[in-house]
Amino acid sequence: MQETGSISIHTENIFPIIKKFLYSDHEIFLRELVSNAVDATQKLQSLARQGEFKGELGELKVRVTVDKDTRKITVSDRGLGMSAEEIKKYINQIAFSGATEFVEKYKETDATAKDQIIGQFGLGFYSAFMVAKEVEIWSQSYKEGALTAHWTCDGSTSYTIDEPTGEHAKAERGTDVVLHVADDSDEFLEVERLRTILTKYCKFLPVPIELEGQLINDTTPIWTKQPSELTDEDYLKFYQELYPMSMDAPLFWIHLNVDYPFNLTGILYFPKVKDELQFSRNKIQLYSRQVFITDEVKDVVPEFLMLLHGVIDSPDIPLNVSRSFLQADAAVRKINTYITRKVADKLGDLFKKDRAGYEEKWSDIGLFVKYGMLSDEKFYDRAKDFVLLKNVAGKLFTISEYTEHIQANQQDKDGNIVVLYTNDAEAQHGFVAAAQERGYDVLNFDHILDPHFIGQLEQKLEKTTFKRVDADTVGKLIEKDETTESVLSEDDQTKVSEAFKTAIANDAMHVKVAALSPQDAPVTITQNEFMRRMKDMQRTGGGGGMQMFGAFPESFDVTVNANHPLAQRVLAGGESGEKLARQAFDLALLAQGMLKGEALTAFVKRSTELL
Questions:
Q1: Range 154-170 average pLDDT
Q2: pLDDT tens, 490-515?
Q3: Shortest CA distance to 59 belongs to which of 217, 149, 138, 173?
Q4: Strand, coil or helix: what is 412?
């Protein structure tokens, strides 16, 4: 007997919204239909475990076929099937979720049912109408004596349903969903197009998926297994499967597996990264019960860990009704915190158990650690014990180790520890060498994040300040109680200063004469540490208040060593003294890498004349 009726819309005018706007990406119709077929299969398995279904399960798989001539795509399963009454209940009443009711009914008797069933929304089926002008359902319930149910809808709110018998009845248990593909959706009649979609969304579904007889998926990906079952080769092979274009093997990985207070499994890989801060195209993939959802996981994974690769699978991450994006809530925040803690624990364990191996990887993992410390206060608290500082000699220290290393020699007169560093050891070699001659140690901070990292350390570490080696003359970098007397009178110092100002003729260069060691350089060019650091941070994305420093003109200090023999020669030289002052100034510019163009040409010519 055939019946005609109208689909019950629980929200007014929702049907055209579902068809045209709810799902922005048409290709996900196949994800939804295959997911529904997997649901039906797993429901039958659950009923069999409970003894409610006593028949033979047989071969359980989902088949996708396409007939280009008749313009049909068919998704078939051998799950529990539906009667005509169930189709009217679950298909015709939009927004009523059969999966939700099923879980509610069996949650007390079958703990695995909830985790296995994908369907949540009761709307996924209608994504078929984005590509189909008509959809048929042929279904045979698992229940004894059930008749075949045949439902047809052309995308309007009208449908027909009947129960064909004899040769027109469905031959076996399960459901076939037949899509009559619309004229504007020819692309989905191509087998390779369907293969691409299935590989993207269904590659790891827990029930075998076949396309035209070929198996598409791995039903037991390694994140569903226990770490004790897996070898390093298994993890590396899976990484290559996820990212076949990646040239480098990951450094190490973290296997996530928690079932309280939320359910989460997955594997996060630490890839090799380049020196510059960049977000890789190989993103973390988010799954829900082995169905691919998205690779935009910024709410689930802390921002600093977006550089990681791998898979996260959780049925507890709330998605919008089309499963296209995440909805942030308390569960997501808990998962975010858990992942942060697991990463910190993994790094901490590596450091404690294999310090040498950890140090070998530091050039690759240092980015993660520093970025994490800057981004997340809780991560900073954990990472401060395994973040490493590298000096120009290549030796690595923890923060506490380094503080102890320099404490005796690098305290100023006020008891502050002064950490000296370079951001370009080659360009600042003269300053580094001068500091080392004083017995000082110099750190290498040459990464784009380091200006921000230095600022954070200064805030966190008591009585500790950081200075770049070219921030002042070597004798002033770490001020001691010692004083050096000038061999020049105040009047002579003024004359030397005026000679240099005349020779330099640049308002951005502020000349001062200071009593330094005769062994120190005759002229040193430095930039105020605070101003230079603010400008560095502004250039590397400091944002906010840092923008004001980027607008300031460059300003440098030119320190003339009153106790160097050159000062006496400049004082006594008249015009030749000014020429000598210019030559000494250019040498100082050269040491800073600041002598270029016409000034460099003039310096070379002058040097030749002075030989």
A1: 87
A2: 999 998 999 899 888 888 888 999 88
A3: 173
A4: coil
How far apart are alpha carbons 315 and 112 in whole angstroms?
Answer: 12
What pLDDT, in 10s, does the model give residues 344-377?
999 999 999 999 999 999 988 998 899 999 988 9
Summarize the annotated binding site for ATP as residue ranges.
32, 36, 77, 82, 97-98, 120-125, 175, 323
| Distance between CA atoms of residues 95 and 394, nearest Å | 63
Mean pLDDT taken over the chain:
84
Q: Where are the beta strands (DSSP E) in 291-358?
A: 291-294, 309-313
Q: Which residues contact 507 (CB under 8 A, 6 or more apart)?
A: none
Tokens encoding 474: 């070597």
Question: Which runs of E-coded beta strand occur in 271-326?
Answer: 285-288, 291-294, 309-313
Is there a contact between 75 and 131 (Cβ–Cβ < 8 Å)?
A: no
Q: Could you tell me which residues are annotated as the binding site?
A: 32, 36, 77, 82, 97-98, 120-125, 175, 323
Beta-carbon contacts of residue 453 (< 8 Å; ≥ 6 apart): 370, 373, 374, 445, 447
Pairing mode, strands 442-444 and 149-153 = unpaired
The two tokens of residue 460 are 């966190």
Query: Encoding tokens for residue 81?
Result: 């099937």
The residue type at 215:
L
**Taking a C-beta distance cutoff of 8 angstroms, is the pair 107, 148 a contact?**
no
Give the CA distances from residue 82 to residues 41, 209, 345, 493, in Å, rounded to whole numbers and listed in that order: 12, 20, 49, 100
Which is it for strands 556-561 and 523-526: parallel, antiparallel or unpaired?
antiparallel
Give 234's contacts (C-beta < 8 A, 6+ positions apart): 222
Residue pLDDT, tens place only, 459-480: 999 999 999 998 888 888 888 8
Strand locations in 193-308 (E): 209-211, 214-215, 252-258, 264-270, 285-288, 291-294
Residue 114: pLDDT over 60: no
Q: pLDDT tens-digit profile of 371-412?
A: 999 988 999 999 999 999 999 999 999 999 999 999 999 999
CA dihedral of residues 104, 107, 112, 114 (deg, nearest 10): 20
Distance CA 189, CA 67 (A): 7
* Confidence (pLDDT) at 4: 77
Classified as helix, coil or strand, 387 is coil
**What's the Cα-to-Cα distance from 281 to each of 271, 307, 311, 334, rounded to whole Å?**
12, 9, 14, 26
Query: From residue 555, how far is each of 111, 274, 313, 511, 584 by CA, in Å?
Result: 70, 33, 54, 11, 19
Number of Cα atoms under 13 Å in the Cβ half of residue 327? 8
What is the reported pLDDT for 123? Answer: 57
Q: What is the pLDDT of residues 221-244, one digit of tens each?
A: 999 999 999 999 999 999 999 998
**pLDDT band, very low/low/confident/very high, at 121 (cuts 50, 70, 90):** very low
Q: How far apart are CA 471 and CA 532, in angstroms?
A: 9
Distant-in-sequence, close-in-space partners of 550: CB < 8 Å, separation ≥ 6: 535, 538, 539
pLDDT in tens, 235-273: 999 999 999 888 889 999 999 998 878 889 999 999 887
Domains and CATH numbers, the chain: 3-214 (3.30.565.10), 222-351 (3.30.230.80), 389-477 (3.40.50.11260), 490-530+539-610 (1.20.120.790)
Q: Is the peptide bond before 244 cis (omega within 30 degrees of 0)?
A: no
